[in-house]
């Protein structure tokens, strides 16, 4: 994909891709939509990748949450094998409308920083190992 730097959309969901997500996807600087959900990608670290500079829609964990583009609106991570807790830095994604992290192995509690996601309209977290108290800020989210 080295010669496809102008690629805007990469959609390869519901396949049988395995292993880590290729870090060279980070060279696709014009990419606006990445969809890799429903594969067998594994990630135990939320900073495994350094992919995205300007994604608007994404379907897989593209680098550490703290380093993701604040332009990101849709983050689909569902049906992979992502594990670890949701980082506090999730609150930095202030343009996020959709956060779908369902059907993974995510553990821990929902961070309080999620209340910063004032544009969030869809939070999909089913089929994980999330525990702890249900933070009242979730009840105050718009939508």
UniProtKB/TrEMBL annotation:
Main localization is membrane
UniProt subcellular location: Membrane
Phosphoprotein found in the keyword field: no
Q: Which UniProt key words apply to this protein? A: Glycoprotein, Leucine-rich repeat, Membrane, Repeat, Signal, Transmembrane, Transmembrane helix
Q: What is the lineage of its organism?
A: Eukaryota, Viridiplantae, Streptophyta, Embryophyta, Tracheophyta
InterPro entries reported in the protein's UniProt record: Leu-rich_rpt, LRR_dom_sf, Plant_receptor-like_S/T_kinase
- Xref: PANTHER family: OS02G0215500 PROTEIN, OS04G0122200 PROTEIN
| Protein name in the entry | Uncharacterized protein
Assigned GO CC terms? membrane
Any keyword Membrane?
A: yes
């Amino acid at each position: 994909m080295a010669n496809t730097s102008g690629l805007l959309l990469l959609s390869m969901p519901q396949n049988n891709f395995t292993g880590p997500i290729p870090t060279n996807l980070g060279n696709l600087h014009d990419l606006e939509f990445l969809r890799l959900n429903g594969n067998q990608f594994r990630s135990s670290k939320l900073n495994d990748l350094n992919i995205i500079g300007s994604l608007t829609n994404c379907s897989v964990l593209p680098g550490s949450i703290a380093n993701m583009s604040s332009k990101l609106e849709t983050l689909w991570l569902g049906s992979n094998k992502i594990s670890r807790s949701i980082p506090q830095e999730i609150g930095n994604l202030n343009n996020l409308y959709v956060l779908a992290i369902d059907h993974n192995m995510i553990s821990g509690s929902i961070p309080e920083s999620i209340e910063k996601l004032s544009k969030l309209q869809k939070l999909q977290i089913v089929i994980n190992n999330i525990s702890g108290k249900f933070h009242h800020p979730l009840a105050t989210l718009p939508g």
